Amino acid sequence: MLIRIxxxxxxxxxxxxxxxxxxxxDEGHDVPYSVLGPQQRSYALLRDREVDIxxxxxxxxxxxxxxxxxxxxxxxxxxxxxxxxxxAARQPDPEFHWKTLExxxxxxxHGLQPLVxxxxxxxxxxxxWKQIKVIDAGAPDKMEAAFKAGAGDYVHLQxxxxxxEVVASVGASMPPVAFxxxxxxxxxxxxxxxxxxLKTYKRAREWVRTAPAAGIASKESLFFPNIAAETLAxxxxxxxxVGCWEGGIQIPRDLYEQxxxxxxxxxxIAWRHSYDEVVG
Length: 280
Fold this sequence. Notes:
Largest sheet: 5 strands, mixed
Number of strands: 10
Order of helices and strands: EHEHEHEEEHEHEEEHHHHH
Shape: globular
Distance between the termini: 24 Å
Number of helices: 10
Radius of gyration: 18 Å
Strand order of the largest sheet: 2-1-3-10-4
Strand content: 15-25%
Structural class: alpha/beta
């Protein structure tokens, strides 16, 4: 069976999906995996049946809905219920608190959801966004390179973080939230491919939630050819400890509402979007 999967980002943060792909391949299915390009739009790829399943976020539907774009994907399963970004410093800092960032320079990921969540985490922890010198250094690889070259005091990255020393987890510093999810065209939910994927994904997510990190890292090592096994395992373990993969595969209504609250708090949406119009 052919099941074409695309990720909006590639990271160990999405280990439940990566493990699912490996499980499906082990079962003999043809499962191409790719990453969304700069000029591609997930809703168009799913609408035009160029991709079957996309790793995304419920928030990805909100701006297009406000622009009147239809049809949009349906989000059917949760990947992460915590933000997966970390703050790294040049030196370990066990006394770090969010107000430490005030007066400092931060290389921040300027993707819409990561930036919105970062602003919310700062506010939630009593820090003033306006007191931080925030720099957009480009894509994550460019951010890492710039930080390693001496730019900034702190950097905001998904794991594995190879630049600096992790001093804070954005996800652990704020309430659980519908952060990343899986979506598809509504018509695809009627197919055998969807049913096969969903059954395997449920098993994969529970395995990633509970299995030893080293075993998970080994299973998905082909996705990270340039990352050392121990680094990948440490990243998986850190995400387990943060609680990113807790809960079932359903997208809880309260976590969806919390995502709306986060976006609304920084003026990133025009109105609160109905759960039933996005999740199904």
